[in-house]
Specification:
By secondary structure, this protein is an alpha/beta fold. It contains twelve helices and 14 strands. An eight-stranded parallel beta sheet has the order 11-10-9-8-5-4-3-14. Bound molecules: NADP nicotinamide-adenine-dinucleotide phosphate. The site of NADP nicotinamide-adenine-dinucleotide phosphate (NAP) has 23 residues, from β14.
Length: 305
């Protein structure tokens, strides 16, 4: 496993992280196996949110392992707040309350990274700033970031925050390439030319914000997995051929494709299957050539102008 020195922090994070959105229905034993497999593979970064499994994901994670042991210190625990039933809420009161809830469910004294989950249309950045400062001063949260935010939304926060934004979690995979399509098709009168995110990829690179691609195996908005899916014959043929040549699985190639991008993104994989996780982690040993990277991009149905 390779590690990323996350800018503006002292975090040395595994370049592949494990998302815990889907663990709430697993048994304690299954969760413990998954966490230990991850750590044996060198994964030290775990992504949560207060809403995953209605809070059960955080609770079952900490219930499955001994959080009082040295294990906790070897982990970088990230969680998110700001999503409530029928609304988004970045108020100071809600952020503080949400973090207390996560600390309790995770049975830990501190959260390494707190992300604001989805942009709140009614955000008052002064309140976010107050909440972050209280959380930092109390030692409850070490670092802060955002998720699903565009450059201007981040700039608005940055105007008031004392803390750095170190992560932005965004949907990105071989079949969700909006972040790069517009850059390849600048100033053309075709759909891929439409800049839907305010050039978030370039912005994050300029500001040293590490992008965490979420759902790296899903197409659409959780419509399913593109690997071994007959809807994507050319893509699977290309990925499988490269996987066979390199002696790894197609899952490793899908992640290696993200890792090949020089922005040094940190994909968050959501598998609950330890065997699959081991296969995925092999991606860290694979470096795709420039040509292979482009071949996969084109096999997904994209075109170069
Ligand atoms: N910030 C946000 O708004 C946001 C949104 C969504 C997710 N996230 C984060 O991103 C993490 C990953 O999301 P995700 O779970 O949707 O990502 P994913 O890794 O793309 O999908 C994992 C799911 O696909 C299944 N799967 C089936 N075949 C697979 C294959 N060949 N390769 C890999 N997976 C296969 C897995 O099943 P098995 O378990 O059986 O392997 C699992 O249910 C979440 O846990 C969460 O932490 C963040």
């Amino acid at each position: 496993m390779k590690y990323i020195k996350i800018a503006n922090s002292d975090l040395n994070a595994s370049e592949i992280s494990l998302g815990c959105m889907r663990i709430s229905d697993l048994t304690n034993q299954e969760i413990s196996n998954l966490i230990h497999t991850a750590m044996d593979e060198g994964v030290n970064f775990f992504d949560h949110a207060d809403v995953y499994g209605g809070g059960k994901s955080e609770e079952k994670f900490s219930g499955a392992i001994d959080m009082t042991s040295g294990l906790r210190e070897q982990m970088i625990l990230q969680t998110k707040c700001g999503i409530r039933k029928d609304c988004y809420d970045f108020s100071k009161e809600h952020i503080l309350e949400a973090v207390d809830g996560s600390l309790k469910r995770l049975r830990t004294e501190y959260i390494d990274v707190l992300l604001l989950h989805r942009p709140d249309a009614l955000v008052e950045p002064e309140e976010v700033a107050e909440a972050f400062t209280i959380l930092e001063n109390s030692g409850k949260v070490k670092y802060f970031g955002v998720s699903n935010q565009n450059p201007m939304q981040i700039e608005l926060l940055r105007k008031f925050l004392k803390q750095k934004i170190i992560f932005n979690q965004l949907q990105f995979s071989i079949t969700n390439t909006g972040m790069i399509d517009a850059g390849i098709n600048v100033n053309m009168e075709i759909d891929p030319s439409i800049n839907r995110d305010g050039s978030i990829l370039d912005y994050c690179r300029l500001k040293n914000i590490t992008i965490q691609p979420w759902s790296p195996f899903q197409y659409g908005f959780f419509e399913g997995v593109f690997l071994d899916n007959e809807k994507f014959p050319d893509l699977n043929q290309k990925i499988n051929a490269i996987a066979a040549a390199k002696g790894v699985t197609n899952t490793a190639i899908a992640i290696a494709w993200i890792l090949r991008h020089p922005a040094r993104m940190q994909p968050i994989v959501g598998t609950t299957n330890p065997g699959r996780l081991k296969d995925i982690c092999k991606a860290s040993d694979v470096t795709l050539t420039r040509l292979e990277w482009y071949e996969i991009y084109l096999a997904a149905g994209n075109k170069l102008p």
